[in-house]
């Protein structure tokens, strides 16, 4: 062990202590697991069986209650009591089956025998109840005593099972507690032995380490004095360099701020020019749309004018037909007059036709005058629409020229903004390098100060270490 390093010696001591501690903890965990397993098995077996016995006893009491309800009731209520009694009997049978399964699982032979005996008593009670149900009304009273005795026997058996399960659970709890206490005391004893062994080993190992540390500490003391002197010189030089770098960084930062302001103004002008260009484009689109609408309106006015002209021709045709009809009516009236009394009726008809022809001619004349006025107004409107459309064409051309000029202005402003951005970016890079140099200088100065402080601390620590191992500080 004399050729081992300090780290290996400490590691060996820690390994021994850890091994003894792990052994003690493992034994304690085994004790805890053993006690827990015993208690868990106790809870899963005896306590569950006791609880199931109580549940079965409650179901049996329900059967007895519904049995009495059946005996004192008649008709539908009696049948309902029979159904309730059968339901409680099924639940009680399920509880007994569960108890038997648990007894088989945990190898409780006595409980299995008790469950089978209780099931036989319960089955006997249920069979007698079914006989009572099947018996006539007047003979049911004869079964009351026998039915009551079988019910009490089953009830006593269930109470005995529950009592035995509770007693066994109590005894198991006491045994588990005793075992847990014994294993706990044993685990604490082993832990104490491990601590004592670790303390003894540490004492002897510490004496060997102290002698080695004393020699190393003397070497550290000489090195710490030399490092402290060098750190003082580096700290002074780094402080001077940091002050110069900070001043240079401040100047570059001011230049960068001024360029950012100029760049912001140029970017604002470029944005305004782009917005004006967009507005002019939108206005040009609106004017073009309005011009297109005016062209459509002009075409529509021409179509209306043409339709009005055709309508006027049709009205003139109607006027001519009315005139011809009037002439025919006059001729018919003359012929009727020549015919004398024989043509009197035809004369009346001819006169009515002439009146209708005159009215039609008058209406055609009025309609023709209205259509002629409308055609004149449409012609005037068509002229105004053409003039307006021409004005929109002129405005559209002017807007397009203005948009072109604004686009050129926006492009120039964007190029200027890009140039300023490039210059600003370059200044930023210079600023970043300057800031980095300043930060590096400050960090170097701080590191030097820290190195100086650490050297002083190392000198003090070496002195304390020498005092601890018995040397002179």
How many strand elements? Answer: 0
Total number of helices: 5
Give Rg in angstroms.
Answer: 61 Å
Which range does the strand content fall in? under 5%
Give structural notes.
The protein starts with 5 loop residues before the first helix and ends with a helix. It has 5 helices and no strands. With 473 residues, the protein is an all-alpha fold.
Brief summary of the model shown:
By secondary structure, the chain is mostly helical. It has helices spanning 6-72, 75-105, 109-134, 144-339, 344-469. The chain is built from 5 helices and no strands.
Keyphrases for this structure?
473 residues, 5 helices, single chain, 94% helix, flat, mainly alpha
Task: Summarize the SSE layout with pairings.
Elements: H1 6-72, H2 75-105, H3 109-134, H4 144-339, H5 344-469
Helix pairs in contact: 1-2, 1-4, 2-3, 3-4, 4-5
């Amino acid at each position: 062990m004399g050729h081992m390093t300090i780290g290996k010696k400490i590691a060996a001591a820690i390994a021994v202590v850890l091994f003894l501690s792990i052994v003690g903890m493992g034994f304690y965990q085994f004790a805890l697991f053993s006690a827990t397993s015993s208690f868990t098995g106790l809870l899963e077996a005896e306590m569950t069986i006791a609880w199931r016995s109580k549940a079965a006893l409650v179901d049996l009491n329900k059967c007895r209650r519904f049995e009495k309800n059946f005996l004192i009731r008649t008709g539908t209520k009696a049948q309902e009591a029979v159904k309730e009694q059968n339901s409680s009997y099924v639940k009680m049978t399920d509880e007994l089956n569960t108890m038997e399964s648990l007894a088989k699982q945990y190898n409780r032979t006595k409980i299995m025998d008790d469950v089978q005996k209780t099931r036989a008593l319960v089955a006997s009670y249920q069979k007698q109840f079914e006989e009572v149900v099947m018996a006539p009304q007047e003979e049911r009273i004869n079964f009351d005593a026998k039915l009551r005795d079988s019910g009490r026997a089953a009830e006593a058996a269930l109470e005995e099972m529950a009592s035995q399960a509770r007693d066994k659970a109590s005894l198991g709890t006491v045994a588990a507690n005793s075992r847990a206490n014994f294993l706990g005391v044993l685990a604490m004893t082993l832990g104490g032995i491990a601590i004592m062994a670790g303390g003894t080993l540490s004492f002897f190992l510490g004496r060997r380490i102290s002698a080695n540390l004393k020699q190393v500490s003397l070497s550290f003391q000489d090195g710490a004095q030399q490092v402290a002197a060098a750190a003082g010189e580096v700290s002074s030089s780094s402080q001077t360099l940091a002050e110069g770098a900070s001043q240079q960084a401040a100047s570059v930062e001011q230049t960068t701020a001024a360029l950012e302001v100029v760049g912001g103004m140029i970017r604002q002008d470029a944005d305004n020019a782009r917005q004006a260009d967009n507005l002019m484009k939108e206005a040009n689109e609106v004017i073009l749309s309005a011009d297109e609408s005016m062209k459509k309106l002009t075409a529509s006015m021409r179509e209306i004018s043409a339709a009005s002209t055709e309508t006027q021709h049709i009205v003139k045709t109607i006027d001519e037909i009315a005139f011809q009809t009037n002439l025919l009516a006059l001729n018919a009236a003359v012929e009727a007059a020549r015919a004398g009394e024989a043509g009197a009726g035809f004369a009346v008809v001819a006169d009515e036709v002439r009146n209708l022809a005159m009215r039609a001619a008058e209406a055609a004349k009025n309609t023709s005058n209205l259509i002629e006025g409308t055609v004149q107004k449409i012609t005037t409107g068509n002229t105004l629409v053409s003039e307006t459309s021409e004005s929109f064409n002129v405005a559209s051309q002017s807007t397009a020229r203005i948009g072109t000029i604004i686009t050129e202005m926006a492009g120039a402003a964007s190029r200027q903004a890009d140039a300023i951005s490039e210059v600003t970016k370059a200044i930023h890079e210079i600023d970043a390098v300057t800031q980095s140099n300043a930060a590096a200088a400050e960090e170097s100065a701080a590191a030097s100060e820290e190195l100086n402080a650490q050297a002083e601390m190392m000198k003090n620590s070496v002195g304390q270490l020498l005092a601890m191992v018995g040397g002179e500080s």
